[in-house]
Amino acid sequence: MKPKGSLLLVDDDRQILDSMADWLRSQAYEVDTAAAFAAAKDRIDRKAYDVALLDIRLDEHDGFDLLTHCRRCRPSTTVIMITGYGTVESAVEAIRMGAFDFLTKPLIDDELQMALQRALSQRQVIAENETLKAQLEMRFGMENVVGHDHRMQRVFDVIDSVADTKATVLISGESGTGKSMVARAIHRRSGRRDRPFVEVACGALPETLLESELFGHVAGAFTGAVGEKSGKFTQADGGTIFLDEISTASPAMQVKLLRVLQDFEFEQVGGAKTFGVDTRVILATNENLTAAVAEGRFRQDLFYRINVINIELPALRDRISDIPLLARHFLDEVCRENSRPPRNFSDEALAALQRYAWPGNVRELQNVVERAVLLGKHEVIDLDDLPRELTAAAPLRVDPIGSRSLKQALEAPERQIILDTLQANDFNRQATAEALDINRTTLYKKMKRLGLEEMAIAAGRA
Question: What is the CATH code for 317-391?
Answer without folding.
Answer: 1.10.8.60
